[in-house]
Amino acid sequence: MNQTAPIKQDIAIGVRGLVVGFGEKIILQNLDLDVRRGEVLGFVGGSGTGKSVLTRAVLGLVPKRAGAIEVFGRDLDALRPQEHRALEQRWGVLFQHGALFSGLTVRQNIQVPMREYLDISPRLMDELASLKIEMVGLKPDAADKFPSELSGGMIKRAALARALALDPDIVFLDEPTSGLDPIGAAEFDELIATLQKTLGLTVFMVTHDLDSLYSICDRIAALADRKVAAIGTIEEMLACEHPWLRAYFHGKRGRQFDPARGRG
């Protein structure tokens, strides 16, 4: 799709020629992608095509074989360790299924990034954790609960609170509404949209959820054939003739949606 090229200062994440593989299997091949500052970008693709792999490559959790990744104009390969550590404080991550530490309370989970990166008093950490708990819509008594005592929706909110612990500029969300019932998923979408507007976040969201794409995403990028096959607004994606996109947006589950009405 033809997109007006944003100026470099407007790019939060820039990926060029990315190649990632495991053994002989190539997962991503010459992938290019720009995530604009302040947008909610939904990233979609078939199961097992490498959506989460891209997130992990940007975060440095899986190695790349070729290509360049820039975050806020900084080439990650060119950063000294202390510079990379400083940049890490500008992003937060909500992993699929929450990935909370089972032996820690919600408060302690939220404080993990604070203990790693900040030199602040325990009292201030407690106050900040309470603030994050309130921000994501959890009740104050959730602070002392362990993950095993939480519902699926509460786990997602607690994990989001941890992702926001350091007041990041970018939030990576990996299937944030998976496992939630439709009401819970809609409420979580609304929470993400509210936080994005209030905090001015850039949101990179890997998702399968068509409702999320329609309701909160400014643009959508589709992964197919090991690269970004198309990127644009929901209307542009609906008009795209790529076979996978047509099957995804116009298949049996996609027909219930009308872009003129939003949710079906």
What would you say about this model in short?
Helices cover 36% and strands 24% of the residues. The C terminus is likely disordered.
Descriptive key words:
single chain, about 260 residues, alpha/beta, 6-stranded mixed β-sheet, 4-stranded antiparallel β-sheet, globular, disordered C terminus
Can you walk through the features of this model?
With 264 residues, this protein is α/β, with parallel strands linked by helices. The protein contains 9 helices and 10 strands. It has helices at 51-59, 81-88, 106-117, 122-135, 152-163, 182-199, 210-216, 234-239, 243-250; strands at residues 11-22, 25-36, 40-45, 66-71, 74-75, 91-94, 170-174, 202-206, 219-224, 227-232. Strands 6-7-8-3-9-10 form a 6-stranded mixed beta sheet, with helices on both faces. Strand 4 and strand 5 (74-75) form a beta hairpin. Helix 3 (106-117) packs across helix 4 and helix 4 packs across helix 5 (152-163). The two termini are 26 Å apart. Residues 259-264 have low confidence and may be disordered.
Instruction: Specify the structural class.
Output: alpha/beta
Number of strands: 10
Integer average pLDDT? 88
Helical content class: 25-40%
Compute the number of helices: 9
Q: Rg from C-alpha positions?
A: 19 Å
Topology order in helix (H) and strand (E) letters: EEEHEEHEHHHEHEHEEHH
- In the predicted model, the low-confidence regions spanning at least 5 consecutive residues are 259-264
Secondary-structure blueprint:
Elements (H helix, E strand, L loop, with lengths): L10 E12 L2 E12 L3 E6 L5 H9 L6 E6 L2 E2 L5 H8 L2 E4 L11 H12 L4 H14 L16 H12 L6 E5 L7 H18 L2 E5 L3 H7 L2 E6 L2 E6 L1 H6 L3 H8 L14
Parallel strand pairs: 3-8, 3-9, 6-7, 7-8
Antiparallel strand pairs: 1-2, 1-4, 4-5, 9-10
